[in-house]
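Pipeline run #58 for the internal structure catalog. This entry was flagged by the ingest filter as a single-chain record with no existing model, so it goes straight to prediction. Upstream metadata was stripped on purpose; only the residue string is passed forward. Reviewer on rotation: M.T. Logging verbosity set to normal.
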Amino acid sequence: MKVLRNILIVILALVILLCLLVGIGTVRPDLFERFTGKGEEPAESAEAVSEDSLSETEEPSEEVSEDKAAVSVDEAEAIIDAYFAEEEGDIPQSGLKGGIDLSYEMPKEAQNVPDALKELCGMEEPKGTCRKLTPDEADRVEEELSEGETGDDLSFDEEYYPYYHMLDMKGQHLYRQIYANAMEMNDTFRAVEKDIPWSGFRNVFEAVFGDHPELFWLDTRYSAGYRDNGECLAVKLYFNRTAADRDGAAGKFNEGADDIGTRAEGDAYDQEKIVHDAIADAVAYSLSAEMNQSAYSALVNRSTVCAGYARAFQYVMQNLGIPCYYCRGVAGEPHAWNIIKLYDGYYNVDVTWDDSESGERYAYFNLSDAEI
């Protein structure tokens, strides 16, 4: 009996100890984590910076002076260039407004698309790069780079610039800054919003690019630099060759747009059809066309791919006061077309496919989502 009594005492003591540990874990989880050696996983310092990209970081080609004030703006921009690296992966939806339906997944390949039309898909996705900056270099870049144009006085009508209005407030702030600096051709500047992840940054750039075909000098490439703590620090834009003489290029661009737009007469539908036909008649499809992701390639060079067709159509229709949007998707290959707003709703328009050798000029003109 004595042995049994001792066993019961030991069991009771263990039960009391276990209850005590559970109670401590409930009231003071931090103590429990120290005791067990468990805790929260460390947060990723910069959401979109992969281990591979960090391991490939190149050292700056020039040694940076210990005197921070001695770093020039050119050197600061060079630091940014040295530390950008490509980030792969799907684009998360961070930075978008709440309440937007994000359940739709774009198919890897479109259904019921004729093989001949699959060949008319030359749209390139905007390609961003991201690099984590070292603390020392980040400090120097932050001190030397200005925000450039903040765009705080800008506003964008939801009817004509839908992608802007899909962003949250921080995304819209960065959108205005990117747009304003692109207009001034400032290619490198400090981000006005630090608390925005790389996934959100990508959404912002793509929103600017999708809403503004008039930025014909803006390339599809872009870059961002991040601190260890995940703060967005610097932005870098890239421009195509027209930036070297933007005023001269703008004259040709506007002349090409006016040549088509001034023909448009009648109601919105009549104007749309005239512009649709004029672009199809004037432009030739070519994968080798220069600057083929820009409206410039269609309106000036008259040679482009689906992206150029769509951005040219978007620009001319917007100038006529008819809401028209640039859309991206998959049709065997990445493809671009338009959505236009007419009196009774929204319709899909694909000038590229209506300019195919099939001869069916209006096969993809004003189709519903179900029809396309």
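catalog note: The two ends are 86 Å apart (CA to CA).
catalog note: Residues 148 and 189 are 6 Å apart (CA to CA).
status: ready for reviewer M.T.
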